[in-house]
Amino acid sequence: MSATTLFEGYVYPNHEVFWGILIVIYPYFVSIITGMVTIYAIAEFWKKELKDLEKLVVVSSLPFVLSALMPLLLDLGQPQRAFELYVTPNFSSVMAVFGIVYLTELFTLLGEMWFLFRIDIVNRALNERNPVLKLLYRILTLGVYDTSEEARNVDKKVIKILTGIELIAAWCLSYVSFLFGVVKSNPWWNTTILPVSFVFGGLAAGGAMVLLLYIAFTARYGVGRKPEIIATVSNYVFYFLLAAFALETINTILYAYKEDIAWAVIKLASTQLAIPLAIQVIGSLEALLFLRYICYKCRNGSMNTLFVTIAALTILVVVFAMRWNMVIGAQLIDYSLRGFVSYTPPLLGREGLLAALGVLLAPFVMLPIVTYFFPPYEKKVSVKL
Hints:
Elements: E1 4-7, E2 10-13, H1 21-45, H2 54-67, H3 69-75, H4 84-87, H5 94-116, H6 118-127, H7 131-140, H8 149-182, H9 193-221, H10 227-258, H11 261-272, H12 274-297, H13 301-327, H14 329-332, H15 353-373
Protein name: Polysulfide reductase NrfD
Organism: Geoglobus acetivorans
Keywords: Cell membrane, Membrane, Transmembrane, Transmembrane helix
């Protein structure tokens, strides 16, 4: 329907969709960041068998953190004034809080990268043959060339402290992005269950991204994949996704039982959100099935990798559909409950599909650049005799 709804001879004004696909991408990126940081924290504090993932997760998180600002900058009417968030902080503003939390996340991540790669940076500064790269790595050493065992132990302690701070910042960043979704929400989304479901969905998306990157980078560097890493991360992703799916299902069942205004909203919105809802339900069940049953029972390594890849890609699509429902779906329902606004993203323009596609691809464009200077693995070179 159009921006106005006709009903029995009256014209009911409908609010327009102010936040489009770019604001869907922002909480989507933040969800992935939260999940990746959580997997890194699990590897650092708990599961030592995931140690091989640490460098990969850290270098892969940086492009997503840098790209998280892009949707907001493109959506702003005056993007050149965005820096004022940092020079004139206002603690009563959601955007200002986002700026503070974002900088905390960014700087702790950069600190983790430096301490995690410090020995590699020193070795490259001493042994690099390219004079430009040699100068770059010498600058990155910050004048610290100590590679003794005592210095390495100090590095590990500092990394643990930074990991704790980064984990808190990432979860706070997820909460701020959740606020963006509910500011214009209707009763379906404005519940106490939504923040928890939002976070668990993000944890599943971040874990799925880690699985995909691990499979891709082990193939790229010729490093043997460790089945225990894939099994452990897949197990976490399964429970994260199960919790998100269960919470949203319980929330819907609760509204159906109460039959209040939120249930009327759900029935009205289901026609407009049929596709993302179907993706969310069917995709979640498919991913849960692959992760829990097929992946563990399949003995063939290549088949195991194939099913994990399919499940991880499905989860990323499912979580994007969840964010679409939260941001776009929350704005479609007319406050009179007599109609809804139709929304089709434009192809061109600052908030069009092409711009959104560029933002979605931005982390994957940055990733090869970051990994060129900070490779997560040593490339295996096969020697023919």
